[in-house]
Specification:
By secondary structure, the chain is of the alpha/beta class. It has helices spanning about 1-20, 50-55, 70-75, 85-90, 100-115, 135-145, 200-210, 220-230; strands spanning about 35-40, 60-65, 120-125, 130, 155, 160, 175, 180-185, 190, 195-200, 235, 245. It has one domain (about 30-245): Spore Coat Polysaccharide Biosynthesis Protein SpsA, Chain A, CATH 3.90.550. The chain is globular and about 95 Å long. The model is unreliable at about 15-30 and about 260 (pLDDT under 50).
Length: about 260
């Protein structure tokens, strides 16, 4: 009788273990390699979207460099800008890539400060970011971290332009190891830096170039130029965007109206 009871108990235990519910893939926390997260802003931010996306990561805040009250002549004397940029600020920019405000210069300098704060991979946001899909962003960052030998900069939700500043056309080349919507810059140019991932090498390259000479255009256009001149490998998410800019509005960083955007 006792033997029968033990056999039945073992059979029940076997079936319980066989049909035990396996954890869903969504319940498994993905262990991401080490990278820094920074947000550049001139105003206090809660960053609730980033906290939900990366609950175990520290969200660092880089205060924007506020030189909006400085005179353009003093900024010129500091050698942060050149005469061409002074003219575009004073008289208004004629082309989108030109610098039209002191805020754009302060933004570039704030980027420089972030690059100087470490050597890890870097996920950098501007204050007007809007994360559309938390899980997709985590997955894409994981893929990027596992392929840092194949690119230097990955731009989320940028606007691609087939013509570079010289007017040459370029064809998008899909990034095979990323989800649909990613392409190599391939000599073209892009706008918007509201969410950008830098590899350690990409971070070092930009750190060594930014403000080495006075800046004469906005940094997204600078990166497009440097991609060709200094072999910086840029990939761009131009479709199926994971992160977008919050609307077409002024921020504490960009305070003018671009004539080509109106």
């Amino acid at each position: 009788m006792m033997l029968t009871f033990i056999i039945l108990l073992l059979i029940c235990l076997f079936f319980c273990l066989s049909y035990r519910k396996k954890p869903s893939s969504s319940s498994i926390t993905t262990c991401l390699p080490n990278f820094d997260i920074f947000v550049i802003s001139l105003k206090p931010m809660k960053n609730e979207q980033l906290i939900k996306t990366f609950p175990n990561k520290k969200i660092n805040i880089q205060n924007g460099i506020d030189i909006r009250s400085a005179t353009t002549e003093n900024i010129l004397k500091s050698q942060m800008i050149d005469e061409k940029t002074r003219d575009s600020i004073v008289n208004g920019r004629k082309y989108h890539h030109e610098i039209g405000t002191h805020g754009a210069i302060g933004l570039a300098w704030a980027n420089k400060l972030v690059f100087d704060k470490g050597d890890n991979s870097l996920l950098l946001f501007e204050e007007d970011y809007n994360i559309l899909d938390y899980m997709k962003l985590r997955e894409e960052i994981n893929i990027l971290q596992n392929n840092t030998d194949k690119f230097d900069i990955a731009v989320f939700g940028g606007i691609f332009r087939r013509k570079n500043l010289k007017g040459d056309n370029h064809i998008l080349k899909p990034v095979e190891w990323m989800p649909p919507g990613w392409a190599e810059l391939n000599g073209g140019r892009f706008f918007l830096l509201h969410a950008v991932f830098f590899t350690p090498i990409g971070r070092k390259k930009i750190r060594n170039l930014l403000f080495k000479d006075p800046i004469d255009m906005q940094i997204d256009s600078l990166y497009s130029e440097w991609a060709v001149k200094h072999n910086i490998r840029i990939i761009l998410q131009h479709k199926d965007k994971t992160v977008r800019q919050i609307g077409n509005r002024k921020t504490t960083i960009q305070t003018d109206n671009c004539r080509t955007c109106i």
